Amino acid sequence: MAMKTNIPEEPETEALMQEGVSQVLELAQENGVTLDFSDDSINEVEKMLAECHAEYKKAKSEEGFYGLGVMFGAYIGEVIKRKGLGGNWARNHPDMGEDSFPFYWRGHALFLCAWCHKRIFDGDGDNVAFKYKCSVLERINTS
To answer: How many domains does the chain have?
Structure first.
């Protein structure tokens, strides 16, 4: 989901998301996965989220999984930033509410953490690699 909006400055949220990126990199390393901030690494994120979904179905509890969604969303935002495409994080969004963590990019708000939450909780119909391709790569190629 993308919504046009003004870009706020929130250093505390940026720092929180950087911590999320660090945690995802540690988790990936622990599981023998290489995340290199490339577009292709989003496919690895998708695989890791698929494993999270399987664990969520076994656990039958959302406990801990919300934080994982934020961490993986932070990584996707960092991939966009490292492409030299800018973007910044906010904690809240006027329409989507508190702790929705919009990523403001090119005049829109991308809800990258929500992409990851939906993938974890709802399954492969919410493939983040597909969403990244449609919402980020295709937007780059058409501008």
So the answer is: 1
